[in-house]
Every structure is written in structure tokens, then in C-alpha cells.
From TrEMBL:
Residues annotated as binding FMN: 110-112, 139, 161, 189, 276, 298, 331-335, 354-355
Identification of the protein by name: FMN hydroxy acid dehydrogenase domain-containing protein
UniProt keyword list: Flavoprotein, FMN, Oxidoreductase
PANTHER family: DEPENDENT DEHYDROGENASE, PUTATIVE (AFU_ORTHOLOGUE AFUA_6G02720)-RELATED, S -2-HYDROXY-ACID OXIDASE-RELATED
Gene3D superfamilies linked: Aldolase class I
CDD domains for this protein: LMO_FMN (cd03332)
Amino acid sequence: MGDHVEQRFLASQRFKRHQFNIYENGMLRNQFPTVTTNPNKLEQQARDSMEAKGFNFIFGGAGEHATMDANRLAFRQWKLIPRMLLPTSQRDLSVTLFGIEYSTPVLFAPVGAHCVFHADGECGVAEVAADLDITYIHSTAATASIEDAARANGNGPRWFQLYWPQNDEITLSLLNRASRSGYSTLVITLDTWSLGWRPANLDGGFVPFIKGVGDQAGFSDPVFRQQFKKNYGVEVEEDIISAAAEWNKDIFSGQAHTWEQLEFIKSHWSGPIVVKGIQHVDDARMALKMGMDGIIVSNHGGRQVDGALGSLEALPEIVHAVGKDMTVLFDSGVRTGADIIKALCLGAKGVLIGRPWVYGLGICGKAGAKEVMMGLLADFDQTLGLTGIRSISQCNRSILRRITYGGDRHTSL
Ligand SMILES: Cc1cc2nc3c(=O)[nH]c(=O)nc-3n(C[C@H](O)[C@H](O)[C@H](O)COP(=O)(O)O)c2cc1C
Ligand SMILES: O=C(O)C(=O)c1ccccc1
């Protein structure tokens, strides 16, 4: 390989080197990955290394995990058909979303309450995301403020995820803060206006935000603080439990907004807006009608409606209906490089990764989150090449086949 590598191949080069480094460390130094590279062992490693309440908060889906299982099974039903003797040794992973070029189509999914998993928290993850040049999406349910996470993310690409408050003044304040802190794109999560029924968390009686953990967007918000002081006569820090109750009434009120109210947000956010949690094709059409720039086909990792279909099952029909007119992104159940490719081949323009790096964070902090994402991207890059794909625009249905016969069971490695 010559010294000069074109800019657009650099991300791929870096991930390729990662695989080589792992082998070299093993063979020459007797050093092995701290976090397993095996997607089927990651959950167990996290379970073994974390406190139960933290682990269960990541792991715990709604109900009997039927939808979590369906998310994985949906991927198993699609198979890649690799092509040979194509010039794929150098690969361009870049994509353009809403007119901005990103070095890969992969994003960190918005995840709340990082400090429950590790003290490195959102700032650690935002730093890692910048280092990997992968988009960081800051959650409204974060344990770090919007501004602190932005500082840690530096020049990295970042989006802001809104849990939509009932109080418009507070909504406006959050939007202004995100915009001032350099978050380019707004993600509005629609599927979690109230928490799903999650037995792993219910049985342990654990949810972080009742004690103010994951409420930092509110506690650091000037409008919320002022209203709290007016109503309670004390500062947030002097009565955390009441402040938490007030804040959560605003963002997880058990009361959903309406499609029409998206107009309000649209008139107060100048960048692209994406709605997250779309599974029904008619909702995708509604999002388009309301002038949204994109949607995230997601079922929140099976944490909300148990018995709902696997998220990948929803993707093809939605892409068919609105894919020409808006940007369709995808998450829920993505665990391997091949999964990312399958979602892209089915029409997603970007793919969000959730639990895997959160487990990495729980295992050993930001270094663990980084190791998981490096591994996943290396797998993605390598599998693209071996499948015969040189750039993301070449991902399409011609290299996919749906296998509908039974017996294709999950096998443990
Ligand atoms: C611990 C945890 C916290 C999450 N917090 C948020 C959040 O604050 N906002 C949001 O929009 N989605 C949140 N999600 C959902 C993710 O963004 C994403 O949709 C989901 O993790 C995808 O499923 P998967 O992890 O099984 O791939 C959370 C997911 C997990 C696992
Ligand atoms: O657990 C979740 O899925 C989630 O969205 C959330 C909600 C509140 C606090 C932290 C995460």
C-alpha cells in the first residue's frame, strides 16, 4: 500500500488497521481485547462486570422481550450475497445526510443516564465519538448538561435528541441551548412519552430519574430553574426529589403531543428535524406531511411496546413509501457489521447503535465504548469489502435475499 491514501478512504483504513492490531497484540504481545469482540458475549460480560441495577437498565426491554427477540430475528431472515473480484480493497464509508458529509453512516444512538453505567458519563462518550468521527446524539435524559457534552465533543459531529416537554417555554429553552452548543440536527423521540412496562427494572424497583439522575438537561436549564424556584421557593439542589418529579412530569408526563404540534418545533429549529420511533408506514407519511426532514425507524430497542414487530421488518415498506422524499435512518437490534449493511441495503441512509457500546461503557468506561465501536466499524468495513461493496451508495437489494424457511436458529458462539 502506498503512503498516500485519499481522504475518503481514511476511515476505512483506520478500522482495517484495528483488526490487524488485535491480531498483532495477541500474537506478539500476548495481549487480548479487554471487551469481547463477540456480539453474543458482550451482554454476558457486561452482566458480570456491572452492578445489577445498571446492567438491567441497559438490558431490560418491555414485557417478555418478544420485540427484542424479533429485532434480532428480523436480521437473521435477510442474507447477504457476496460478489467476487471487484475493486473493493479501498473503501469509502462516507455518506451525506441533510447536506452534510459524515465519514460513516453509523451514529451513536441517544442513550440517557450514562452515569448509571460509568462515571465517564456522556462527556466520555461524546469525546470518544469525536475521536472516531462518529455522530454523537445527546439525550434529553442525560446526566451531563447539553453544554458540557458539547464541550467534550469539541469539533465532532453532534445531534440533539429531544424528549418533548409539555411546557413550550422549556422546549424553546432546550432548543436554543442545543443550537447555541453546535448540535446540528434535532431528533424528536416520539415513542417514549411514558416508559414501557419493563420487568427487569420493575422487579429491581429501579429507574434513575426519580432521584434526579438523568435530569441534567432540566436541572441546568434557566427556565426550568426559575419556574421551580417560583413554585417551590427553593433551588433545585435543595429539593432534588421534587425537582425530579417536576421535570419528569414535563418530559415523561404520560401525555403525548399531536402531529400538528410539530409545526411549533419546526418554526423554532432552523436545522434538520428527524422524528424517532416510527414503525407504521402511515406515521412515516405523517412525518413527511408535517415537513420533517427524516425519520428513524426504531422501536426503542424493544423497550416500549412488547409484541411489536421487529424494527427491520418495518423498514422496507417505509422506505418504499417515503424514502425518495425524506431521509430514513434505522435502529433497534443492530449488533454486527453485516446488520449495518443489511439495513443500508434495505434503504436506511444511516444506522444508530444502541446497547453494544452502552455495555462497553458499563464494562470499562469510555475506553470500553470506544473498543466496541471500533470493533463494530472494523467488522462493518471488512464485511463490506468481502461482500464486494466499495462505497455506501452500492448497498442495495441486489445483494440481499430473504430466506423464509425455518430452522435458522440463533446459535451461540
Ligand atoms: C440504556 C438505554 C437508554 C436509552 N435512552 C434513550 C434516550 O434517552 N432517548 C432515546 O431517544 N432513546 C433512548 N434509547 C433507545 C436507543 O436510542 C435506541 O433506539 C435503542 O437502543 C436501539 O435498540 P438496540 O440497543 O437494541 O439496538 C435508550 C436505549 C438504552 C439501551
Ligand atoms: O430507558 C430508555 O429507553 C430511555 O429512553 C430513558 C428514559 C429515561 C431516562 C433514561 C433513559
